Target: Ras-related protein Rab-7L1
Amino acid sequence: LQKRELSGQLFKVLVIGGSQVGKTSFVKRCVGGVFTEFYKVTIGGQEDCLPITRAFFRDADACIMMFDVTSEKSFTFCEALKQAVDTEVPGKDGNPIPCVLLANKCDLAQRTVQPGAIADFANALNFFTWMEISVKENKHVEDSVRQIVEAVMTKR
Ligand code: GDP
Model:
């Protein structure tokens, strides 16, 4: 993204999802673009890790939630994650922060999570939007960042 499109503003964007879905690869591709700092936090347990989760989520402006289209488990995990974000991360206006759902690894033939199911899920859980991407093939990565910026701007 062009710097001027961001008007010099700084946003905190969460990149969350199950393990091995491609979060690290995604952020690495974006470094030098809109992502300037990158902290990796692994949340192992559930309730017992909530204080850490809260600290990590604090003051976020938006969220990128990622799953792997070849992993049904990583997809269903997004439901609990989205609920956690909605309840734990009140945005600055008191409403939940905008979340973009990214269906990663769409380059792989052995996908098990189909677009129809993703669209229904994204609608039901109030995602700002959803997109299929391939971090590996650099497909729609920049578009997805553009979407998240748009989500933040729309909120303001
Ligand atoms: P994280 O645990 O969510 O941070 O996932 P990583 O970024 O470490 O990626 C996990 C594995 O998936 C690595 O072997 C990546 O090379 C691979 N990977 C990431 N994105 C893609 C993608 O779009 N397509 C494919 N085929 N593999 C990917």
Notes: Residues 72-88 form the longest helix (17 residues).
